[in-house]
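@channel anyone free to eyeball this complex?
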Amino acid sequence: MTPSVLAGLVGAALVGLGLYGLISNPHPLRKLLAFNLVGSGVFLVFGIVARRGAAAGFAFDPVPQAMVITGIVVAFAASALAVALILRLAAASGKVTLDPRAWTKPGEGGQ
Amino acid sequence: MTAPGGELLVFAVLTPVLGILLSFARGGRAAEAITLALAPVGLVLAGFVAWLVAWSGAPLVYEIGGLAPPLGIALRADGASATMMVVTALIVPAAAFYAREKFATPQGGESRSALTFWIMLQAIWAALNLVFLGSDLFNLYVALELLTFAAVPLVCIDGRPETLAAALRYLLFALFGSISYLLGVALLYGGYGTLDIVLLGQKIEGTPLVWTAAALMTAGLLAKTALFPLHIWLPPAHANAPAAASAVLSGLVVKGSFFLALRLWFYVLPGLPIAAPAALLGALGGCAALFGSILALRQARLKLLVAYSTVAQIGYLFLMFPLAAAPAGGALGWSGGFMQVLAHAFAKAAMFLSAGVLAEALGHDRIAQFGGAARALPLTFLTLGLGGLSLMGLPPSGGFEAKWFLLRACAASGQWIWAVPILGGGLLAGGYVFRILAPALGDGEVKVKASPRRSQELVALGLVVIALALAFAPENFFEFIRIGRPLAGGGAS
Amino acid sequence: MSDLFSLVAICAGVFFFFAGTVGLLRFPDSLTRLHALSKADNLGLGLVVLGLIPRADTPLAALKLVVVWALALVSGASTAQLIGRALRRGRK
Amino acid sequence: MSVLAALDLGLALLVVGVAAWTVSARNLFAAVVGYVAYGLLLALVWVRLYAPDVALTEAAVGGGVTGVLLVTAGKRLDALASAEIGAPPGRGLKIFAGALAALVAGALAWVVLTLPSTPPSLAPAAAEAASGPGAGLGNPITAVLISYRSFDTMLEKVVLILAVLGVWSVGADAAWGRAPAPLRKPEPDGAMILLAQVLAPVGLLIGLHIFWVGADAPGGAFQGGALLAAMGMVAMMARLMAPPRIDSRKLRLALVAGPAVFLVVGVAGLMLAGHLFAYPQNFAKPLILFIEAFMVVSIAVALPMLVSGPPDGGAK
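replying in thread with the prediction:
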């Protein structure tokens, strides 16, 4: 098995693990960690695509690698925004739950 | 390859970007002034692009840096994107004009909410223009992220815990959506070595790779569009944002990811047999139209009701997939779906702005306590009523035109099943619009805390008038929105 | 000759890494684990770097290797200090 | 199986194992620490994929700066120990999540194993463009980022600015204009200060070096900027440097410098080279380095501001 195929399988496993954590973990910071796992799995898929595209004297296709660099920075910015929201939410309300029911005042209906 | 005037496409994106940078660097009052000063520029650019597309009858393309795809990035304006640009250039300035009082910057200072609002509003404009013009799937990913980062802070701009929770939930859904979309992009690049929509559309085949990529990208876009059952983030987010922001979020932002779903299925995958997935999307849309309407009927607060109505109206949009993909009546389905996008954008923006006027005037938006409010706020209730007309799909309105087209598409393609949500959703919409208007037109005495601002009421009325005027769209308008659209089964029209 | 030197030095370095890892896993409390880890890592990495120096293409590359080791030393030593203090604070 | 293949397999298992630990750890802080270790391991995977540029970015941003962000967040959340978490997931949700995750991972693995046997690639196109739009750049990734796909990169810098404003906007109204809270609560001690004093100048030099060689060798504005950002954060933790006030004109200018210069040069390309975001052939490399220099500034300032959080004080 070549390193790139192995990395591709790792990427698939990371996407699966992250997706599981994203859905099943109620804590928003844990959801954020899981989102980052999915993100790195996706980047690995780009990585194997880049490695397979080695041609014309390059050991890799530079286009997907450049996309990963852009993606890593965007994922970090997203994490920072999410962390700011989580901390503010915890400080302002003492709760970090995302369950909509916890935020509905009695008599206002809604789901 | 680049057509004369193609630079306008880049400038349509760069103008609001320049506004963001200047507003952020100068701070304070400058943000508002820059937004309002650049708004006419944006409108002129959008109008000019639309004129160029209509005049040449072909898409307008610009290759950035003079480098052709697949290595370079191209922007491409067809009839659909030019129309959406014009809609954006009308609704965003309307929201900006409406919000001037609430987000006024204190003299000589800078306020958190004002700076955030003005910069994020411009960012939404930049992102939407890029969503409509982008022709490279990764470039469109950047556009989606711009849209997310602009929209989320608007939801929690007033800082109450429940708005923070709504914003956080929205952010997590949107991030999941982006990353799922990006995974599909990675697979498509691995399969075809290009991300240009036109080039992909020529090469694409029905391999497992393509279907997996399409499923992942669609799932991501559905989460961002809030299609049932991924809608739970939308009502609290749209109901808690300030009215001007809600108008833009509900009227335009969810249409951005919907537009990309259209691009994917009708431009990237036009040659493939898409009947089954299109039927699935239509079924989800039908459920959304019925389920969202029923939930809207049960809401006690006006803004939540209007937000659930968005969930329902998004459902209609997805009926476009089975109807426009059908070999017979596909053109009718495309026209009807597009008309629904436009009618809902204007009607919903007008209704959210009216809900804002109402909440300011009464100090609350509890429907049960609207007794007699129509006498105190006649203009606002007129706007709500006319907007409701379009949501129900009664003539004369863009909503009626849309449903009429969609029903004719059902007939032409023999897919009668889709008439059920179209008609049923309309009846339910009648129910929730009646729930708003009945107490207001009835007896009772409401206490008006602050008299409504006439200019804000007129902005909302102006938008709803456009929603009604869409009913009189001439036939060549529908030809315009078909410019550059590949026909299902291959070949361009 | 230089190959043999590299081999010996790197093997010795790997041994220290191994010993440090065993210490990390088997020692009873945080302070002793820290002790095993920082000693072994510094020495282990130093030996690996020493073994790699003769194999560097240019003197600059060799210098970079030394800088890597020096930076790892500085950050390792400081982190060990910081963790140690945090532990002491926690015990009080 | 060769030694290298065995190492690869071991690395792969380790990465997946640490990821699984991050998802399943009971304690929030343990999960965060697991994630930081995971980020560093991932950098090694990127090295094995012949992606040194990505490895540098992953180590600096994905592992390093994100690590500080998450650890700080974990500690601040622990301080609010009373924070109530939502109900634990029911069995049904867990089964659903597991089934969906298995389905997606399985489909993905299948697709990865059946990628076309003649892989498509833009490497030949990039090699050809190296004498045109990418003139004088030995590192093809830098050419992609700043020339062929410059529009993406410019807009991604705008995303960073929006993120900074979004983070600030979460603060209290009364705090607007002030500085964010220091990164570390307790007073710094000798070891921390010494570390910052020794590490920061060296790191600064290495960061600038990575940016400078990025035109021809692995590195560039992202990696260099991220390293400078990390050094700034070390200095802030040791209280050698205070986070700036968010209404500081210098800070705002530093944040917009990268995208603004990019935009101006891009528009000037219409006059100089006949296309928006094109570079005149003879000046491509100096112009690209010019843009990158400002991007380094913006990145080096934006990342610590994103980690620092909203302006402090004025809590309700």
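from a first look: Chains C and A do not touch (no CB pair under 8 Å).
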